[in-house]
Amino acid sequence: MTPHFLDLGDLGFERGAHLLVQRALGELRPGTELAVTGRDPALLVHLDAWCRKQGHQVRRAGDTDDDVRAWVTRGRTDLDRWARAERAGGPDPGGIVAKPELHWGLAARGALVEPGGPKINADLVDRDFVWADIAPSLYAHAAAAQWDPAKAVHWDAEFSVPAEIEQAVVQVMTFLVENEQAALVIPARLLARVHPHFREVLQLLAVQAADEARHVEVFTRRALLTGGEMGTSSVSGRESLTTLLTEPDFSLASFLLSVLGEGSFLNLLTFLDRHAPDPVTRQVVKLARQDEARHVAFGVAHLQHQSTVDSSLRGRLRNAVEHRHQALIASSGLNQDVFDALVVLAAGEWTPQGIERGYAAVQELQAEMDEGRQHRLVRLGFPHDEAAELSALHTRNFM
Amino acid sequence: MTLVMGAVAYDPKVVTIWGGFRAWLIEHGLPFDFVLYSHYERQVEDLVAGRIDAAWNSPLAWIRARRLAEAADRRLTPLVMRDTDRDLTSVIVVRSDSPYKDVADLKGETVAVGAVDSPQATLIPSSFLAGRGLRPGAEVAIRRFDVGVGLHGDHIGGERDAARALMAGEVAAACMIDANHLLFGREGTLAAGSTRVLAQTAPFDHCNMSVGDTVPEEVMRRFGDLLLSMSYADPQVRPLFDLEGLTVWQPGRTSGYAALETAVDESGFYDGQGAVTAAGYAP
After folding, report:
1. Which of A13, A114, A323, B163 pairs as cysteine with A46 (C-beta 3.0–4.6 A)?
2. Residue A311, CB half-sphere, CA atoms under 13 Å: how many?
């Protein structure tokens, strides 16, 4: 009696017998024989056909082979398929490699990858250019902090806002939607360029895009809550945002959008929280601010990491700010309607005293934005004077 | 010289397969190119006329090419074949619940076959039936499913239609290659267990790489050696092997074509000099 024997019972190849044969052969060395028996009438026909395709040899049993219908000699095709396979790094962040292979493509990190196959169309493939150690924890935090626009905001809260103040709210919301749409498109575009090996970065960018999608929703909904029309969109605002969309460099795009743009937005959202004339406005800006703070944290952490491995980084960041400033030099900056709406919101009333107070509050907001930008630039290693100089070159459109 | 091979474009994947082999062969120092044909007959005629150096031939194409070449005093070499071209069988299948216990029981019944030029689903099974005393058109009626005529059965459609006719109760039996009986069972064209293999032919061989005598001995040897050296472990080769359905190239042999030679003669598909004599065959 052979030590390698497989009884398939009534099971045929039309119902999965190949799994048992495959498993039994898998335990044998190439060249070893497996005795196969079974009661399916088509067993021999199908065993022949299946083995031929898999690279195994079959010979039919002789009269003296009691209880055996065929002998299968194990081939080596399955072994050859995986002979040069490699692990795509390791599943944990510690298993991330400096430069993942393009043919790993969409394989899970840590998977055993069959060699060959198409190369993924990703151009952000260097760990130092896309990775930040904080990404996994930021993603976990972001995933846990997702909120449902339908439930997180009390849309039916009762309030009464004077028509001209409401108009200011609508204008600011219109401005926010425009900016959030830029902030949605940029991470979504970058995401598609990052090698999936850097899974946590993709996840974080995906959640960032999802965050912005919710912001677009809640700001739009607040703008239309009282039944009016959306506000205005100026050429200068869209010009400013377009310069963000055209920045191809991952680090520079992250810098301009997250560190400078969304960083300034943190101040703006705080300002709106403080001066919101109604509870719904206050809620939506509060929710958005939580998310934006995370985006800024990732941007800063990523660039801090990169500046430790790339001494030319700060020079490039500086160039990016100057280049964008040059591109926008002929642009008039912030939509005048938006500026005026912010003043009116902070004023809360149409009196000389109120407007004076509101105007001062917006000036203070701009000073706070400048201070915040300088602070983050210093964290990236810029000297104080250079940080002040670069902050002053930031777009007047805030984002 | 650039060795120019003919291949029949029975499926778009043929371009991927031979484009991939072409790149591999050139990388390994053999100038190689291929041309595509819409059917085997023109490919065979061009091979024997010396317009191409080699042809990836169906077994039926090999038989015609050999006959044409011998008639013209030319010599063809079956250089290599796939491991999966060796020792195939065809089966005659009936419904499990049918009364047929033996091939002889099909007397007076209708049997479904594939395309007129399919070695595995028409020519060899018809000859097999005749050998059991059931001459097509006499003791049994034949219902042919002419899908992809000229492709020598490379197109699976005729066999699948024959299997469907069996399931629909339109015919008593259907003929197909063993691997397709398994495939149809697994994909559900034939519900698992709903059919029975009534008979199985003796093993026969399928395609080969037929090389003409226009090719210098040294080039032919190099071509053969390179193909035989291709390994399934090579990531460049493996996807091409998977598409072409082989795990290794093996030396060509002619010992597995006797049954088809007989079938061709019995059906009058080609004459002894390789002329097409099959009635109504117009690829």
Report:
1. A13
2. 0
A90, A176: one domain: no
Do A12 and A137 lie in one domain? The reply is: no
For B104-140, what is each residue's pLDDT tens digit?
999 999 999 999 999 999 999 999 999 999 999 999 9
Nearest CA in chain B to A79: B233
Among candidates A46, A77, A117 on the partner chain, residue whose Cβ is nearest the Cβ of B182: A46
Check A13 against B185: CB less than 8 A apart. yes
The verdict on residue B273 lying in a domain is: no
Average pLDDT over residues B166-195: 96
pLDDT in tens, B22-41: 999 999 999 999 999 999 99
Q: Which chain A residues are closer than 8 Å to B248 by Cβ?
A: 55
Nearest to A50 among B87, B182, B200 (CB): B182
Interchain proximity B181–A77, CB inside 8 Å: no
Domains of chain B: total: 2
Low-confidence ranges of chain A (pLDDT < 70): 1-2
Minimal CA separation from A54 to chain B, in Å:
7
| Chain A contact for B89 (CB, 8 A cutoff) | yes
Nearest Cα to A243, choosing from A320, A335, A129, A337? Answer: A320
How far is A80 from chain B, CA to nearest CA, in Å?
4
The parent domain of residue A22 ranges over 5-79
Q: What is the 3-state secondary structure (H, E, C) of A189-236?
A: HHHCCECCCCHHHHHHHHHHHHHHHHHHHHHHHHHCCCCCCCCCCCHH
ipTM of the assembly?
0.92
Q: Quote the domain boundaries for residue B98.
A: 90-200
Q: DSSP per residue over A360-384, as a string?
A: HHHHHHHHHHHHHHHHHHHHTT--H
pLDDT at A308: 86
pLDDT of the residue at A2: 53
Q: Considering CB atoms only, which of A49, A116, A117 is closest to B182? A: A49
pLDDT in tens, A327-383: 888 887 788 999 999 999 999 999 999 999 999 999 999 999 999 999 999 999 999
